[in-house]
Automatic annotation (TrEMBL):
GO terms for biological process: mitochondrial respirasome assembly. This is HIG1 domain-containing protein. It comes from Chloebia gouldiae. One of its GO terms (cellular component) is mitochondrial membrane. The keyword Protein biosynthesis does not apply.
Length: 93
């Protein structure tokens, strides 16, 4: 089975962004998929609260917060995958 050469890559079909700094890129990505930064913020908040509970000796609440952190990480990962799928489907249309 002889395969021919790959089709040429058309530069006009690729999205181009002007030189953008960190802030502009962060805001653009946040507008594209707002659940990922929200999930990251939630994960970090639960983690910090869990560490504070651990330092104060509230081991039961600390364990609960670590379990909540894992759930928050899972939700963030699901939001990331969902955003990637939505972007891929949008680019096909």
């Amino acid at each position: 089975m002889a395969a021919g050469p790959p089709p040429p890559l058309e530069p006009n079909s690729l999205p181009t962004f002007p030189e953008e700094g960190f802030t502009e890129k962060f805001l653009r990505k946040t507008r594209e998929n707002p659940l990922v930064p929200l999930g990251c913020l939630c994960t970090v908040s639960v983690l910090v609260y869990g560490i504070i509970c651990f330092k104060r000796g509230h081991t039961r609440r600390s364990q609960l917060m670590m379990r909540a952190r894992v759930i928050a990480q899972g939700c963030t990962f699901a939001a990331l995958l969902g955003g990637m799928v939505a972007t891929a489907l949008k680019s096909r249309q």
